[in-house]
Amino acid sequence: MANINFVPDDYVQSNESRRTNLIYLVLFAVVMIALGSSFMTIKIRQRACNLKDKLVNTKMVQIQQAIKQFEELQTKRGAMMRTALTTAELLEPVPRSVLLASLTNNLPTGVSLLKLSLVQKEPRRTTSVTPTSKYKAAQAKKEAAAQANISQEKLLETHIDIEGMAPSDLQVAAYIERLSSSSLLDDVALVESKEHKIEESTTFRRFKLTAMLRKDVHLTKEDIKRIRDRAENTVWNF
Length: 238
Hints:
Elements: H1 9-91, H2 96-105, E1 112-121, H3 134-149, H4 152-155, E2 157-166, H5 169-180, E3 185-198, E4 202-213, H6 221-237
Antiparallel strand pairs: 1-2, 2-4, 3-4
């Protein structure tokens, strides 16, 4: 027996068409939702990347500022070191190690140093004499102006106090003569020389000397090396 369909073909086609359209709408909605979520995800990631970029830029600026401050500190440190070296050269034209080496080099046989002190003082001011002529008055003004232009550091005098032991006064006199002929010292003078006994059998002379470091002393590297090398040989031979 054949099946007889009493539903009109137009109705069937319209139902299928509505079903197809509904499927298309659902698919379109799914695609739009997917596109919307992708768009939102991209926007969120862009915002996160922008925030990271801002943080990186801020850190870069801070690092650049820190580097700039470090470079400024290094520049200031270099300037301070140069100033300190210049001041040290002005205050101490001859290194103390070189001065000690020179004092050691000039020691006669049997003489030893016990104490050494260096003191920097301002030079004594001489009483000014009233000039008797215009020429002398002009010369006095020129000298006063020249002294005013010289820095106070260069005007300082280095006084040296030396204490030591010697077998006799002959060695003390020889030491004074050697120091007087030194290119570094000036105004070498004996303060005292006293007898000193060791273990009640050996007699020595304990002496004290004063001297001044010559002004405008300029030593080359070769001079300093020669003085130090000679001092090492003197210590080994002493």
